[in-house]
Structure formats: C-alpha cells, structure tokens
Amino acid sequence: MAKRIRREADFQPELRKNLVTREWVIIAKGRGTRPSDFVGEAESERLPEHDDNCPFCVGNEAMTPPEVFAVRDGGPPNSAGWSVRVIPNKFAALHRTGSERVRHTGVHSARDGFGAHEVIIESPVHNKDLWEMDVGQIESVIEAYRQRYLAFESGEPLRHVLIFRNHGPKAGTSLAHPHSQLIASPVLPHQLQVELQGAAAYWEYLGKCAFCALVENEKEAGERTVLDTDHFLVVTAYAGRYPFETWILPKRHAIQFAAMSEAEAEDLARVLRELLGKLAGCLNRPSYNFAIHTVPSAEHNVRAYHWHMEIFPRITTLGGFELGSDIYINVVAPEDAARYLREARVPPTS
Ligand SMILES: [Zn+2]
Ligand SMILES: [Zn+2]
Ligand SMILES: [Zn+2]
After folding, report:
1. Which of 58, 72, 255, 297 is 20 to 30 A from 215, alpha carbon to alpha carbon?
2. CATH classification of 61-90+112-185, choosing from 3.30.428.10, 3.40.50.10170, 3.40.50.12650, 1.20.1250.20?
3. How far is the CA of 211 from the centre of ligand 2 (A)?
4. pTM: predicted TM-score of the whole model, two decimal places
5. Is residue 117 flagged as an active site residue?
6. 145-175, pLDDT tens digit by residue?
7. 14-44+189-343: which CATH topology?
8. What's the 168 CA to ligand 1 centre distance in angstroms?
C-alpha cells in the first residue's frame, strides 16, 4: 500500500490551469517531498516466463477468439510465431452488433452498446512489463497500435478509438500478461471533446496550436522536462491531476498517432522504454495507466489538434472532493516529480 501523503501546513497551495482543457487543479505539496514519501512496496513478485493457463501466452492461441492482426515471423494465423497479437476481447465492454439509432424514453436517451473492444498482446512472454522488452519489440507494439487505428479509420461507422494500457492491481489489470486495449465507440468521450474545443479556441485566439506552444514553453522552462529526444518532449504535466502525471508530446505538429513516421516510431519506442523504466525505478514498479489521445480525421476543428500520450501512475486514490468537483488535488509538485524522474535509474532488465 502507498503511504498516506500528508499536505504541508506551511506550504501555500497553488491552483493551476490546464492550458488546453482549462481545468483547474490544486497543487497541494511544496518542494522537498521525497519519492520515499509516496512509494509503496513492489506490487508483484516475479512471475514465470510462461503460464500454461494464460490465454495470452504463446502456444495458447486456441484459448482466445481468432486474431484480427499480428506481427509474425511465420506460421499461420492463431498459431505460434507472433511477436504481437491483436484479438477481440472475450469480455467486451461494447459489442460488434447493434443499431446506431438513439432511443428516447421520457427524459432519457440510450443507444445500443455497439463498438469494438480488442486486446493488444504485447509479447509472447508472460512476465515482462513494456519497459523490460527490447526496443524492437516495443516498435512492433507501436506498429500494431498504428495498424488498428488505420483499420478503424477506414470503413467503420465508429467515431472514436482509444488505445490504453492498465498495468498493476491499482490500475485495473485483470491479467498479468503484458497487454494494452482498444475500445472503439460511436460516441466521442467528454474529455476528448473538451480537449478538441480547447485546442480549437486556442488556435482561434492565438493563431497557433496549444500543444506546439506547450512544447516550446516547456522546452524553454526546462523544470518539468523528463526527456528531450529528436522527436519527443516528455514533461510532467504543469496542471497534472495525478502525482507524476507525465505527457509524451511529439515535437512535430501532427493530428494523428497513425501518421507517425518510421523515425518517430523508433524514437517513441525508446522514449516509452526509458520513461516507464524510470517510473518503475523511481516509484518501485507502481501501477499505472496510459492513454493515447488522437482523433479521427473526420472530426471538426481537427486542424488544431496534436496527438499525445498521457501517463498516470496510480499511487494515490481519489476522494470526495475530486469526485464531487472534478477538481483534482495533486500532492506532488510536478517540478519535483520531473526532477526525481530525471534522476531515476531504469532498473536492470535481464
Ligand atoms: Zn501469459
Ligand atoms: Zn501542434
Ligand atoms: Zn490529452
């Protein structure tokens, strides 16, 4: 269990605003926190490399629905020989069948839970987190993400696709085998709508992309920078909702994740490995989630958008204030978090 993080009585809290969504957060902890103030014990003992009962392990392909995509060196579909495998989720949140019609009952509106829910199995090996894989393997995972976005972009009546990853018990994982998920839905999530509107408004008033402005500003400020590579700037979020909330921002203005070049994909694989490794080193292998924010090209105001990734370590729990107000209290100053991540070492991988 993570220790309870107390706020400092003598620290003047600060309200900070997210420049894209215009949401406020409270940064409630001054400088001088140590990572040991908020890390818990490592959450899992070492798992075996292969688990005979795991449906995602190599050799157990028959335990899952047939694959929809795979990166493979050989062998027919649904047999061994793959390095990344994408399958429909057996316990899907949304189903492939249903009508798109909206129904009204009294004051209420509903529609069929039509959509898609897929699992991206990131490795044939059971016991490695993403950062423990080699860069080539992570590149294959990124290629699978790209291919699934492209597949849904062409010829699906679904409006939105989110790829995300849950790692560890506090992040909602049900299976230990390394995997991420994709949910495609006929509706646009509220958070993305807010980001789209915010980015469009910023463009309208200031004539440029909010995310490009953020990259420029954060590069210059430096105090929230974790990594600065050829193609990406990794920063702790200025108005982060969660302690150690970190954003991966592409330096090139690009609306969609799937439009990434080969050089960018290779750099992103290195960035993910380094960043997730640093989080593991700094916070003792915490549970975490990440999500890719990108939009379908058919969306309005799409010119102003700039894809990015948001990473949320799960070291605190939400309370009544967060749930009741949607204003988050972040107990670690993002500048402290960035400094600890810069200094953190990636644990050795074998
Ligand atoms: Zn497995
Ligand atoms: Zn931009
Ligand atoms: Zn976002």
Report:
1. 297
2. 3.30.428.10
3. 5
4. 0.93
5. no
6. 999 999 998 766 788 999 999 999 889 888 8
7. HIT family, subunit A (3.30.428)
8. 15
Q: Around ion ligand 1, which residues have CB less than 5 A away?
A: 51, 54, 56-57, 126, 177
- Tell me the C-alpha distance between 192 and 307, whole Å: 11
Let me know how long the chain is. Answer: 350
Name the CA dihedral angle for 101, 295, 161, 151, rounded to a multiple of 10 degrees: 100
Ligand nearest to the CA of 199: 2
pLDDT tens digits for range 37-53: 766 656 556 789 999 99
| CA 236 to ligand 3 centroid distance, Å | 13
Crossing angle for the helix pair 334-343 and 262-283, to the nearest 10 degrees: 100
Annotated catalytic residue within 167, 177, 179, 308 = 179
